[in-house]
């Protein structure tokens, strides 16, 4: 598969939304052109914060039937939540490799549960660790902030990881998450990212649809999809 066959996907993070109005906020993002919803699940252990779990995701799926749901599992025991999240209607289960002893096994369990597989790397994790299991994943997420909090400053030096992945795995879906918006999207697209998580920049915008369009057009221009 050539680089040009990849497509830009924009997935707003609902972490910064009004969680008391989660369905309305999520639907608004989809109506604004979001390709998927990025659902941040935190356990208060792997990261200091606590967000929500599979019961909430299942309720959201009950109201939003067709959208692509990615759960970003910032949790110490990702294998514990595979079945509940599959049951909740999650499409892609993206987990952090750092607390996991047997990454290929977790990848296999996710796939057996009927979900796509994403593997996520914290900023301090060397990118070349993915060589051991990239063939078992659908996507690699490069964190461009420390996971656990919204609204952090984008880490420009993480683009070296993205470039390395794109060079070594030209057909891989590469996701970036953290501080991504109109001011930083060009660096992400230039490095080779094609799945873009954006929280504050989209949700806090007066016109979210314009921001989503800008992000998508920037990525597609670098993919050669004009």
From TrEMBL:
Q: Which Gene3D superfamilies does the annotation name?
A: Aldolase class I
> Where on this chain does substrate bind?
13, 72, 148-151, 179, 199-200
Query: Where on the tree of life does the source sit, at the highest rank?
Result: Eukaryota
Q: Which UniProt keywords apply?
A: Carbohydrate metabolism, Cobalt, Isomerase, Manganese, Metal-binding, Zinc
Q: Which reaction does it catalyse?
A: D-ribulose 5-phosphate = D-xylulose 5-phosphate
Q: What is its EC number?
A: 5.1.3.1
Enumerate the GO terms in the molecular function aspect.
Answer: D-ribulose-phosphate 3-epimerase activity; metal ion binding
Catalytic residues, per the record, are 40 (proton acceptor), 177 (proton donor)
Q: Which GO BP terms sit in this record? A: carbohydrate metabolic process; pentose-phosphate shunt
Read off the InterPro entries from this record.
Aldolase_TIM, Ribul_P_3_epim, Ribul_P_3_epim-like, RibuloseP-bd_barrel
Q: Where does a divalent metal cation bind?
A: 38, 40, 72, 177
Q: Which family does it belong to?
A: Belongs to the ribulose-phosphate 3-epimerase family.
Q: What is this protein called?
A: Ribulose-phosphate 3-epimerase
- In its UniProt entry, the species of origin is given as Fopius arisanus
């Amino acid at each position: 598969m050539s680089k040009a066959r990849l497509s830009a996907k924009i997935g707003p993070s609902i972490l910064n939304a009004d969680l008391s109005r989660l369905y309305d906020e999520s639907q608004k993002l989809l109506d604004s052109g979001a390709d998927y919803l990025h659902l941040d699940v935190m356990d208060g252990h792997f990261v200091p914060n606590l967000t929500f779990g599979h019961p909430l995701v299942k309720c959201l799926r009950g109201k939003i039937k067709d959208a692509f749901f990615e759960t970003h599992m910032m949790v110490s025991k990702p294998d514990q939540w595979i079945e509940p999240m599959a049951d909740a209607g999650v499409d892609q289960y993206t987990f952090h490799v750092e607390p996991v002893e047997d990454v290929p096994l977790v990848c296999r369990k996710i796939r057996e549960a009927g979900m796509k597989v994403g593997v996520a790397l914290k900023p301090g994790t060397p990118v070349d660790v993915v060589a051991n299991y990239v063939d078992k994943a659908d996507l690699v997420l490069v964190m461009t902030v420390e996971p656990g909090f919204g609204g952090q400053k984008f880490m420009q030096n993480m683009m070296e990881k993205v470039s390395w992945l794109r060079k070594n795995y030209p057909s891989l879906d590469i996701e970036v998450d953290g501080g991504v918006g109109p001011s930083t999207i060009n660096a992400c697209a230039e490095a080779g990212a094609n799945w873009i998580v954006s929280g504050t920049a989209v949700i806090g915008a007066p016109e979210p649809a314009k921001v989503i369009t800008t992000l998508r057009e920037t990525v597609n221009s670098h993919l050669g999809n004009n």
